[in-house]
Amino acid sequence: MNGEQKIKKAYQSILNSDFEQAIIWFEEAIEQEPNNAIYHYKLSITYARSNKLIKALEHAEKASLLDCNNEEYLFHYEHLKAKELTKHAEAYFDQEDDQLHLAVILLKEATVLDPLSVEAWLLMGIAYAQLEEYSQAIQTLKEVLNLDPNHEIAKELLKQYKMMFKIYLQSYK
């Protein structure tokens, strides 16, 4: 069975909601054609849908390296990389405030890679507020609402942070 036939088997498995079997078929296709960028890309998507971010990133990167002119592969890789950075940033929220600055750095990088990542923008706004950088928090939450005007959490936080900013400014009068 050639690589293309294995890819068809992988898609049949996906249609049957058997993602683990689909992964096996994609991996077998890659064993036969390790330099086939589209196989790595398709496997990456399947890993991502199965919440296997590390493996998804590995194959997304491979696809974008094998076909560096393919913008879709690069976009997919950057989207996954942004997810990874966001996940790492979350770990800093339980630590000291000076560690929260590291979360902001990671989240800024995530939003550069994936400017449409509502989660990264939202977490960055929360981090800024925890650091009492309310102006930045408000600006960041406005970006969330530009991306998703109906985001209820962002709307509520924006109200809270505007009120906290007022109180913060009044404490310096």
Describe it:
The mean pLDDT is 95. The protein is an all-alpha fold and 173 residues long. It is built from 9 helices and no strands. The chain folds into 2 domains: 3-69, Alpha Horseshoe (Serine Threonine Protein Phosphatase 5, Tetratricopeptide repeat); 85-170, Serine Threonine Protein Phosphatase 5, Tetratricopeptide repeat (Alpha Horseshoe), CATH 1.25.40. Helix 3 (37-49) packs antiparallel against helix 4 (53-66), helix 5 (71-90) packs antiparallel against helix 6 (97-113) and helix 8 (134-147) runs antiparallel to helix 9. Keywords: TPR repeat. TPR repeats lie at residues 118-151. This is Tetratricopeptide repeat protein. Pfam families: TPR_1, TPR_17.
In brief, what are we looking at here?
With 173 residues, the protein is mostly helical. The protein has helices spanning 3-15, 19-32, 37-49, 53-66, 71-90, 97-113, 118-130, 134-147, 152-170.
Features:
single chain; 173 residues; mainly alpha; Serine Threonine Protein Phosphatase 5, Tetratricopeptide repeat; 2 domains; 9 helices; TPR_rpt; TPR-like_helical_dom_sf; TPR repeat; Tetratricopeptide repeat protein
**Mean pLDDT, rounded to whole units?**
95
Shape: elongated
Within the CATH hierarchy, at the fold level, what is the topology of the largest domain? Serine Threonine Protein Phosphatase 5, Tetratricopeptide repeat
Strand content: under 5%
User: If helices are DSSP runs of H or I spanning 4 or more residues, what is the number of helices?
Assistant: 9
Rg measurement, Å: 21 Å
How many discrete structural domains? 2
Question: Unreliable segments (pLDDT under 50, ≥5 consecutive)?
Answer: none
What is the highest CATH level, the class of the largest domain?
Mainly Alpha
Level-2 CATH architecture of the largest domain: Alpha Horseshoe
Q: Please report the total strand number as a whole number.
A: 0
Structural class, from secondary structure content? Answer: mainly alpha
| The CATH H-level homologous superfamily of the largest domain | Tetratricopeptide repeat domain
Residues in helix, %: over 70%
Reading the helices and strands in chain order gives: HHHHHHHHH
Termini separation comes to 76 Å
* Major sheet size, sense and barrel closure: none
Protein name: Tetratricopeptide repeat protein
Keywords: TPR repeat
Pfam families: TPR_1, TPR_17
TPR repeats: 118-151
